[in-house]
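Holo model, guanine. Inputs:
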Amino acid sequence: MSYQIISGSKMAKNIIENLKKEVKDFQSSSSIVLGLAVVIIGDNPASRVYVNHKKKACEEVGLTSFEYSLPKDVSEKELLKLIQDLNQDKRVHGILVQLPLPDHLDPEKILLEIDPSKDVDGFHPFNLGQMLRGYPHFLPCTPYGIVEMLKRSNIQTESQHVVVIGRSNIVGKPLGAMLLQKGANANATVTICHSRTKDMEKITQQADILVAAIGKPLFVKADMVKKGAVVIDVGINALQDAQAPKGYRLVGDVAFEEVAPRCSAITPVPGGVGPMTIAMLLTNTLKAGQYLMNQKGETS
Ligand code: GUN
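Output:
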C-alpha cells in the first residue's frame, strides 16, 4: 500500500513563515515587543535540546526569548519566586517551564503558579478547563500541533475512531478532549489506551487514526494497526545503536518500517510532531500578545 508521509517539518516551516509576518505586523502596530521566558531546571540533555530548538524558533520569527537556567537542586521556593517575578514582568508575554522537573519539585504546584494569561504551554488548570469545556484560551502545544497536522493534511476526524495510546496530561488526555469536541477538525469518537488497558491491540486495530504517545520506543507494531489507518507518532526516544555516528538513533513509539506500509498516512520521527509543537508554542505566544492588546482595548 502506498502511504503519505506527513511532514511536520514542512508544515511547521510554513507556519513559521506566516508567523514572521504576523509577529512583525503585531509588534509594529502595538509597540509591544513579544517576549517568551523559557525556564529550564537541571541538565536533562533532551530538555536542553528542546529548549535550544524553542529559543532558535523564537529568534526566527522575531520573538525575544529569555532563558532562565536553574541548577537541578533549586528549591521550590526559589522557582516559585522566579515565576512570580515573570508573571509581573512586562517584557514577558509567555512563560514556559520545561518538563520533566527534578523529582523534588511538584509540577502541579509549579504550573499552578504561572499566570494563566502567560501560560503558552496551556498546562494551567484554568486553560485545561477552558479547553475541556470547549472555550479554549491556550491549547497545549503538542495536541494543538497534531490537530493542525491532521487539518493541513485534509484528514477528516469527524465520525472517525481515534485511538490514543498514552494518558499523559501533556498529550493523551488533552488530545482526546480536543478531538471529541463538537466542531470542525474534531467530532471524533475517542478511545484512550494506557499501560493498564486489556487487549490493547484489539482496540488499536479498530483505529481510523492511531496516535502513539506512550514514550516506549517502537511500541506500535504492524499487527496493531488497521490497514489504511492514519498513524501519528508522538514519541522521541534515543535508542542505542553502535552503527549510528552518535552511538544512538532517534526513534518514535511506532516501528515505522513495518507499520508504514499498512497506513494511508504516517508521521516520521524526527520531522513529524516535534516541529509542530514548537510552531504552536510560537503561535500561542503571539496569541498571548493579541489577548493582552484586546484586554487593553477593552479597559481603555
Ligand atoms: N516536555 C515535553 N513536552 C513539553 C512541552 O510541550 N512543554 C514543556 N514545557 N515541557 C515539555
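The chain has two domains: 31-115, 141-274. The pocket of guanine is lined by residues 96-99, 121, 141-142, 170, 277 (CB under 6 Å).
Archived with the compound record.
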